[in-house]
């Protein structure tokens, strides 16, 4: 036992020396320097330090530069990743989904800011923050952002821009001659001229004024700019789109399969402006059904090598904020030429299936077509037909049963087939990831009047199942073609969703077990069955949204790649995105590749560059992530704005959705708006964070507040700039909790999880006078 303790002390001291040399890279150090730093005076201790250095030399972790001078090769164990500066006190370097992120104190960022690509090293196994190794940044490889969006405040000879982004904590200094007309409370875009360092603010220049803080248009534009997303199209792009002819030439029609005389319709949201998919329905002589999934033929109009193509690739996706859509393509294309509007001939790319009444696909065909949509349904109108309601909503002046008579059998049959397809997916192991989606009622100025949850009914699911079928069959066709022709060149852009990380999955299973739900992880099939069972059982319970969202976060993120890795969530071996080329660039790539294989000769089937499509797939995945973050930011902004307009001291029911060392997150049930109750505001007890059990515990009373507990709260304050909301806790379950919004947190710094100054602990020379100077 004594030997083990001695070895542990020896190893820890060795790790301490390695950490000291890793963080102090400006010069090599001698043994005497170490003696001085660690206050080593007697011969026995000095000999021990000599042995430690010898061990580190033999292990290759320390190098001798000059005689008696030692340093570390930081590149030997360095990793490259992105900085996620989650807190003013620390951040994480995220570099590998299968490994824990590296915890970095804000003192050790070396001037890096959130989003930067950096090189970092760790201090060794004895330095950890929870489950994460601790380290420091040694090099900034690439800056993640060149511009900052925020609100400007003017002073005599300078101005400051306070960043909107929640992970940027320091103001940007704007010299007087770089303010460029911005005035107090303007939302601006500032170009970074000099990046911040550990001792000095960043310097910027105002390059665009978006409008006044609080103005809806300015705020939405600020969110787009914050995530590096475009606000408008350049004139050259608009002009190129405007020049495209709207006339469909007879020669083009002759090249295509003609569906204009077959019953065809679209089903979309009532406020949709672009319709990129349509369904056709026909009963064949053998009593089977011919069902066409017709997709706007965007690549007929957007040619490779054009500015339009370049812009579509750069954007890669349309962006959906709470009150607007920022399209991937100009309106001439997205809302006109490529929109499958009723009573107009439209060029399409189609997947046509012959199906039996029991849902089997017995024949399939892919190719370019022309259609003529007979009817534009909203989801509500289609649902009315499915429910066989004669409703004036269908048509202001209907003939008796006009819509119902014409579309009832096709819609009911498609719904019947869709339910069979869905049942088959779940039988094969698909997981039901239906989470609540927030929608706002807005007035003409964008002010939120109400928050509602979107409800998915059969009409939504009908369309979804046939889009899934088309995407799946296109991917299978190309993959099978590759093997049937024994070629290596049948590149395809797949939408893949890999199985979850086992550690994350086990953590979620342990968490769900606390609520009485068993998540079995023995195999993909048992996992999907148990997840679906849990999803069904939590429906309508207070913890439904919490568990559903956590389940989604546990899963791997879907992405685009040319590797056929399958789609875990859908239980498809091969899956692509083919059905939304108006709003997704990967669908345009899938269209081009499919057409190439349909028409190319055997000699040219292998002429596609997989590397090129892989790069475009990676870019599309990255842009999709940014668009999703912008959408969430706009929703969060409107949620906070909505709550700021409500009557003060209203008591709301909610659910605890997160527990941290400084507070608990609560989602208000009626509005799905999330805010924080700070531990410093709870005066009935001193609460400590029990991370392992997802709860906080009162030190004196033993009172426990768990993740998933039902609570009642009031709104203490809202901060639109940070898109955050502070709450006061009124009660947990039926037990009242005392809180005091006016009480200032004298205990806050004592709470668990507060970061220590790791650099100071290791004696970093720059650990003093860390305050950043303000340039004037």
UniProtKB/TrEMBL annotation:
Enzyme class of the recorded protein, top EC level: hydrolase
Predominant subcellular localization, coarse grouping: cytoplasm
MF-aspect GO terms: exoribonuclease II activity
Keyword annotations from UniProtKB, A to Z: Cytoplasm, Exonuclease, Hydrolase, Nuclease, RNA-binding
Its EC number(s): 3.1.13.1
Gene3D superfamilies for the chain: Nucleic acid-binding proteins
Compartment(s) where it occurs, according to its Swiss-Prot or TrEMBL record: Cytoplasm
Pfam families xrefs: CSD2, OB_RNB, RNB, S1
Database matches in SMART domains: RNB, S1
Source organism superkingdom: Bacteria
Region ranges (Disordered): 740-776
InterPro entries in the cross-refs: CSD2 (IPR040476), NA-bd_OB-fold (IPR012340), RNase_B_OB_dom (IPR013223), RNase_II/R (IPR001900), RNase_II/R_CS (IPR022966), RNase_II/RNase_R (IPR004476), RNase_R (IPR011805), RNR_Ribonuclease (IPR050180)
Role: 3'-5' exoribonuclease that releases 5'-nucleoside monophosphates and is involved in maturation of structured RNAs.
NCBIfam families, sorted: 3_prime_RNase (TIGR00358), RNase_R (TIGR02063)
Record-stated family: Belongs to the RNR ribonuclease family. RNase R subfamily.
Protein name (Swiss-Prot/TrEMBL): Ribonuclease R
Lineage summary: Bacteria, Pseudomonadati, Bacteroidota, Cytophagia, Cytophagales
Gene from which the chain derives: rnr
């Amino acid at each position: 036992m004594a030997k083990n303790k001695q070895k542990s002390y020896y190893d820890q001291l060795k790790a301490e020396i390695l950490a000291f040399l890793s963080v102090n890279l400006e010069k090599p150090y001698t043994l005497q320097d170490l003696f001085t730093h660690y206050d080593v005076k007697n011969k026995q201790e000095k000999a021990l330090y000599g042995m430690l250095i010898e061990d580190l030399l033999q292990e290759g972790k320390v190098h001798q530069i000059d005689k008696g001078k030692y340093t570390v090769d930081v590149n030997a164990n360095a990793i490259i990743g992105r900085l996620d500066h989650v807190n003013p006190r620390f951040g994480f370097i995220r570099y590998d989904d299968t490994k824990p992120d590296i915890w970095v104190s804000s003192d050790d960022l070396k001037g890096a800011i959130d989003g930067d690509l950096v090189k970092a090293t760790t201090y060794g196994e004895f330095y950890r923050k929870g489950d994460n190794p601790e380290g420091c940044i040694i090099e900034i490889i690439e800056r993640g952002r060149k511009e900052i969006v925020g609100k400007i405040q003017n002073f005599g000879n300078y101005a400051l821009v306070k960043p909107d982004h929640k992970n940027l904590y320091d103001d940007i200094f704007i010299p007087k001659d770089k303010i460029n007309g911005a005035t107090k409370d303007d939302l601006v875009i500032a170009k970074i001229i000099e990046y911040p360092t550990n001792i000095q603010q960043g310097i910027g220049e105002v390059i665009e004024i978006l409008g006044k803080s609080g103005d809806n248009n300015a705020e939405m534009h600020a969110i787009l700019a914050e995530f590096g997303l475009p606000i408008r199209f350049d004139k050259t792009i608009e002009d190129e789109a405007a020049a495209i002819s709207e006339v469909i030439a007879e020669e083009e029609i002759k090249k295509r399969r003609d569906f204009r005389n077959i019953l065809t319709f679209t089903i979309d949201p009532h406020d949709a402006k672009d319709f990129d998919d349509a369904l056709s329905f026909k009963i064949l002589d053998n009593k089977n059904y011919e069902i066409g999934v017709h997709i706007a033929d965007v690549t007929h109009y957007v040619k490779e090598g054009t500015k339009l193509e370049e812009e579509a690739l750069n954007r890669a996706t349309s962006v959906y904020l709470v009150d607007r859509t920022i399209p991937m393509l100009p309106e001439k294309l997205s809302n006109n030429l490529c929109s499958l509007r009723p009573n107009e001939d439209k060029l399409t790319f189609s997947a046509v299936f012959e199906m039996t009444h029991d849902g089997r696909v017995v024949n399939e065909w892919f190719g370019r077509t022309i259609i003529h949509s007979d009817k534009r349904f909203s989801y509500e109108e289609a649902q009315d037909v499915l429910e066989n309601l004669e409703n004036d909503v269908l048509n202001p002046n209907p003939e008796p049963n006009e819509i119902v008579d014409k579309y009832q059998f096709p819609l009911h049959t498609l719904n019947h087939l869709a339910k069979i397809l869905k049942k088959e997916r779940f039988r094969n192991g698909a997981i039901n990831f239906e989470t609540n989606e927030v929608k706002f009622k807005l007035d003409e100025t964008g002010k939120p009047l109400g928050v509602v949850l979107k409800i998915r009914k059969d009409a939504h699911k009908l369309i979804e199942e046939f889009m899934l079928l088309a995407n799946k069959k296109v991917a299978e066709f190309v993959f099978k073609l590759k093997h049937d022709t024994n070629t290596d060149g049948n590149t395809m852009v797949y939408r893949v969703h890999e199985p979850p990380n086992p550690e994350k999955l086990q953590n979620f299973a342990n968490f769900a077990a606390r609520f009485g739900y068993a998540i079995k992880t023995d195999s993909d099939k048992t996992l999907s069955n148990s997840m679906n069972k849990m999803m069904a059982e939590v429906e309508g319970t207070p913890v439904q949204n919490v568990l559903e969202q956590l389940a989604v976060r546990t899963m791997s993120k879907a992405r685009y790649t040319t590797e056929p890795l399958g789609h875990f969530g859908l239980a498809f071996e091969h899956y692509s995105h083919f059905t939304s080329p108006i709003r997704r660039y990967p669908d345009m790539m899938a269209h081009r590749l499919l057409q190439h294989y349909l028409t190319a000769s055997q000699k040219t089937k292998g002429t596609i560059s997989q590397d090129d499509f892989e790069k475009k797939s990676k870019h599309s995945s990255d842009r999709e992530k940014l668009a999703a973050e912008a959408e969430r930011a706009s929703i969060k902004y409107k949620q906070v704005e909505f709550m700021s307009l409500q009557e003060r001291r209203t008591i709301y029911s909610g659910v605890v959705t997160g527990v941290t060392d400084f507070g608990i997150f609560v989602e208000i049930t009626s509005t799905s708006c999330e805010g924080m109750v700070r531990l410093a505001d709870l005066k009935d007890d001193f609460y400590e964070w029990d991370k392992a059990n997802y709860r906080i515990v009162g030190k004196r009373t033993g009172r426990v507040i768990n993740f998933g507990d039902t609570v009642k709260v009031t709104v203490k304050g809202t901060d639109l700039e940070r898109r955050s909301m502070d709450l006061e806790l009124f009660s947990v379950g039926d037990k009242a909790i005392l809180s005091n919004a006016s009480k200032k947190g004298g205990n806050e710094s004592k709470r668990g999880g507060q970061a220590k100054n790791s650099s100071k602990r290791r004696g970093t020379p720059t650990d003093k006078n860390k305050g950043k100077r303000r340039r004037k």
